[in-house]
Amino acid sequence: xxxxxxxxxxxxxxxxxxxxxxxxxxxxxxxxxxxxxxxxxxxxxxxxxxxxxxxxxxxxxxxxxxxxxxxxxxxxxxxxxxxxxxxxxxxxxxxxxxxxxxxxxxxxxxxxxxxxxxxxxxxxxxxxxxxxxxxxxxxxxxxxxxxxxxxxxxxxxxxxxxxxxxxxxxxxxxxxxxxxxxxxxxxxxxxxxxxxxxxxxxxxxxxxxxxxxxxxxxxxxxxxxxxxxxxxxxxxxxxxxxxxxxxxxxxxxxxxxxxxxxxxxxxxxxxxxxxxxxxxxxxxxxxxxxxxxxxxxxxxxxxxxxxx
Length: 308
Fold this sequence. Notes:
It is built from 9 helices and 12 strands. Strands 3, 4, 5, 6, 7, 10, 11 and 12 form an 8-stranded mixed beta sheet that branches. Strands 1-2 form a two-stranded antiparallel ribbon. A two-stranded antiparallel ribbon has the order 8-9. 37% of the residues lie in helices and 24% in strands. The protein folds into 3 domains: 5-82, Arc Repressor Mutant, subunit A; 93-160 and 269-295, Periplasmic binding protein-like II (D-Maltodextrin-Binding Protein, domain 2), CATH 3.40.190; 162-268, 3-Layer(aba) Sandwich (D-Maltodextrin-Binding Protein, domain 2). It is α/β, with parallel strands linked by helices. The chain has helices at residues 5-17, 20-27, 31-45, 61-85, 101-118, 170-176, 226-234, 248-252, 282-295, and strands at residues 50-53, 56-59, 93-100, 122-129, 142-145, 154-168, 190-191, 202-206, 212-216, 239-243, 257-258, 265-275. Pfam families: HTH_1, LysR_substrate.
């Protein structure tokens, strides 16, 4: 009894999507083709793997057990192939990176270009994510996230510490006044929800002397995007709390002013999140190490020695 690898991958993807339409689109096959492959698989294993009812499907109890076995088999196969490829003369293969759009924009002009120049046999696929999806592992190999995942089976490797700073446009400050302490932000228009997994009602602040606290915040507009929050702040619509490295140009051109003379901020950690596996492909390791070096302004590490 044989089970084609491509059919097992189709089954796993359909079990994830629970939609023939979405799975067929992701697999770039027709829906009838996918349906026929799954039916052939069910006939081969002599089990009903999916309950079908109208436009909805879900796994049967037998399908859940079969899915776990398929995932182990495919992961072992992928690990084996990755290990074989890593013993060749050049690191090669695909890496799907999930990250927020502002981070992708910030990394694109330099880091991704340099990485692809250094590793021409590695293909990078970028998937932009919504802040609300960062607590779960997205459909990617490595997720760059400022949040720790809720799934403890995932690995979260620290990449760098970063600062989110309070800033506003000179026009806004001349109109509304310049706050002297974060506690005064309660009386200002604040651009909330930036990169937050849920609605923000308070902002945390701290300084290097150990002073910290929270302040209630509200405003006339909010955004879940750093890029949009920066644009809104530049237009004078309120105070933004954004990563310091994202507004270097706006500060240089006096479009935005850092509040409190830079004394107060939010400190955070950026992580590379990935699934735990017996063998980590060399290309994943190289990508994360070079990204960490770039983010911390360190020289790129030497390329690993590959067995031949």
